[in-house]
Design goal:
Order of helices and strands: EEHHEEHHHH
Number of helices: 6
Strand content: 5-15%
Mean pLDDT: 89
Shape: globular
Radius of gyration: 18 Å
Number of strands: 4
């Protein structure tokens, strides 16, 4: 179901922007306290999330699988027809491609932030560097359903097989997320509490369901 507010196309791939994503952008814009800074940060956030998902979508496109990008809430997803089966190598490439896109953008921002001596352009590339370093580090964490959690599952399939790799990944996801939640509680970081609290609840429910089914 498409709940987009507006859409555009990049590299032949439809990009749908949903209301929750626009609300997130509005919150970012408001928190900066400056119109120019808020506008630049919002633009960087839009570009960074879009490019992350384009990384995933480009792999799907190379496999001739129709897909679309949906920007929703704090991130996005590349959607395609359910039931498609990939080899494990392609799954690894699919999950790593978004992180690679953020690393490339962070590198671009790092190189260009001091190369152009115009303050507003320097600010854009500084934000591009900072936001994409954050997104790369966030997504590389072995917490499902982040890309790092999916990558861990794919890598564990080689020695342990499908079922055990999922079980181990869910346990690792919860173990990694819990200290982050505690840090969020101590520091009052609402973002960390919201995101990793939600991930932990989902992963704990999934782990419980798998264990219960196997009994």
């Amino acid at each position: 179901m498409n709940n987009s507010i507006f859409s555009f196309t990049v590299m032949g791939i439809p990009v749908h922007v949903e209301l929750s994503f626009l609300i997130t952008c509005l919150v970012l814009f408001t928190l900066t306290g400056s119109f120019a800074t808020g506008l630049i940060l919002t633009l960087v956030f839009l570009v960074s999330i879009s490019c992350h998902e384009l990384g995933h979508a480009s792999v799907l496109k190379s496999l001739r699988i129709p897909c679309s990008i949906h920007l929703v809430f704090l991130g996005g997803e590349a959607r395609y027809q359910q039931g498609k089966v990939f080899s494990n190598s392609w799954e690894i490439l699919l999950n790593a491609s978004g992180i690679a896109a953020n690393i490339l953008l962070a590198t671009l921002g790092f190189i260009l932030r001091d190369a152009i001596q115009i303050p507003i352009i320097q600010l854009f590339f500084e934000f591009l560097y900072q936001v994409n370093v954050f997104l790369a580090l966030l997504n590389i964490m072995p917490v499902y359903p982040l890309d790092g959690g999916k990558l861990l599952t794919n890598l564990l399939k080689y020695p342990f097989g499908y079922q055990k790799s999922i079980l181990i990944s869910l346990v690792v996801s919860i173990a990694v997320a819990l200290p982050i939640i505690l840090y969020g509680l101590n520091s009052g970081n609402f973002f960390l509490l919201l995101i990793f609290g939600m991930f932990t609840m989902q992963n704990a429910q999934r782990l419980y369901a798998i264990i219960k089914y196997r009994r």
